[in-house]
From TrEMBL:
<dbReference type="GO" id="GO:0005576">
    <property type="term" value="C:extracellular region"/>
</dbReference>
<dbReference type="GO" id="GO:0005975">
    <property type="term" value="P:carbohydrate metabolic process"/>
</dbReference>
<dbReference type="InterPro" id="IPR051398">
    <property type="entry name" value="Polysacch_Deacetylase"/>
</dbReference>
<feature type="domain" description="NodB homology">
    <location>
        <begin position="55"/>
        <end position="126"/>
    </location>
</feature>
<dbReference type="InterPro" id="IPR011330">
    <property type="entry name" value="Glyco_hydro/deAcase_b/a-brl"/>
</dbReference>
<protein>
    <submittedName>
        <fullName>Polysaccharide deacetylase family protein</fullName>
    </submittedName>
</protein>
<dbReference type="GO" id="GO:0016810">
    <property type="term" value="F:hydrolase activity, acting on carbon-nitrogen (but not peptide) bonds"/>
</dbReference>
<dbReference type="InterPro" id="IPR002509">
    <property type="entry name" value="NODB_dom"/>
</dbReference>
<keyword id="KW-0732">Signal</keyword>
<dbReference type="Pfam" id="PF01522">
    <property type="entry name" value="Polysacc_deac_1"/>
</dbReference>
Length: 336
């Protein structure tokens, strides 16, 4: 991987593809402020324009009924808004486990923010191959097979930056080598694992973003929650055309320094996969250093109870931390 050709190939894999969808051209965001470097001028909220004891956003994933049944009552007790990342294809789903439009309207009426979580909960990132592809192979082994391949019939793209092929996923499982995707047709060209990634084609990613935005249009979504807490630079560049920020670009800590960048945010959970002491100490740091925190939860999990949500909100109240939506945080522009 040390020669210039390989480095150039690696660089190409990180770039945004140039494929466009003319039919959607009028639907992309065009009201973002551009900085001198050509990127969105997205550094917002300096400490001079922030809350005295910091602020925290609660963001709930997916849109299960527990959001309205457990999270909503807890937040009402503290008169605190929250944000929810909605998988638009799951609204009013027949299995009865997900919120409907009336539930979402109730949240909006209470001051909650509705964010996109894509149309069908797809991972917005690329995964390196862990096995070479030989001509005739129809089974590939990307390191993130657990995040792609849930929906059979989805298209994927295999590329090393010089050549690309698109195929349709028909199965996914694990064999003696590892986790794999099974493709409808074999790949005719060889690909070297260390130089190749598997990802969704740009047209499919745009479809996911547009369909979600369109389905949620009555709630005016301006932000995105990335499924599986993963998103890479290629997909961030695409998301910028649709939304003003992403809740969870980096996962592991809820603490965001000021001024924070809504396209380089930190998020962690406050009830699942974390202990109370860690959450309490993170909140104390946010209050003492006047920072911005983003915390999340999946309310359908048993550990995410109404009591645990209320406890975390109580700590915010005791520390004097303002609970706000992500949209509100982004809107607090730094003083010129």
């Amino acid at each position: 991987m040390g020669d210039s050709n390989q480095e150039g190939r690696r660089s190409v894999l990180k770039q945004t593809a140039t494929l466009g969808i003319a039919s959607l051209a009028g639907c992309f965001r065009s009201d973002t402020t551009m900085g001198s470097d050509g990127d969105n001028a997205s550094k917002v909220a300096s400490k001079d324009d922030w809350f005295e004891n910091g602020a925290v956003t609660f963001i709930y994933d997916d849109g299960p009924l527990e959001d309205i049944q457990q999270a909503f009552p807890a937040h009402e007790t503290y008169d605190a808004p929250a944000s929810v990342g909605i998988v638009s294809n799951w609204i009013d789903r027949d299995d009865g486990n997900w919120m409907g439009f009336n539930d979402i309207k109730r949240l909006v009426d209470a001051g909650w923010e509705i964010a996109s979580h894509t149309a069908s909960h797809v991972a917005l990132t690329s995964f390196e191959l862990v096995e070479d592809i030989l001509p005739g192979d129809s089974r590939i082994y990307p390191e993130g097979r657990g995040n792609h391949g849930f929906s059979y019939g989805d298209p994927i793209e295999v590329t090393d930056g010089e050549k690309s092929v698109q195929r349709t996923v028909v199965d996914s499982n694990t064999d003696d080598i590892g986790k794999y995707l099974e493709l409808a047709e074999p790949i005719t060209d060889p690909f070297t694992a260390e130089e190749t990634v598997e990802r969704y084609p740009e047209s499919f990613v745009r479809h996911e973003l547009f369909e979600s935005q369109n389905a949620l249009s009555e709630f005016s979504p301006t932000t995105l929650l990335a499924p599986y807490d993963v998103i890479d630079d290629r997909h961030l560049n695409l998301v910028r055309e649709y939304y003003d920020g992403v809740f969870n670009v980096n996962f592991g800590t809820p603490v965001n320094e000021l001024p924070f960048d809504p396209f380089d945010t930190n998020r962690s959970y406050f009830a699942e996969r974390v202990n109370r002491e860690t959450v309490y100490n993170d909140l104390r740091q946010i209050a003492e250093e006047n920072l911005y925190g983003i915390v999340g939860a999946h309310t359908h999990l048993e550990v995410v109870t109404q009591e645990r949500i209320a406890e975390t909100l109580k700590w915010c109240d005791e520390f004097g931390i303002e609970v706000i939506t992500f949209k509100n945080a982004i809107s607090r522009k730094a003083a010129e």
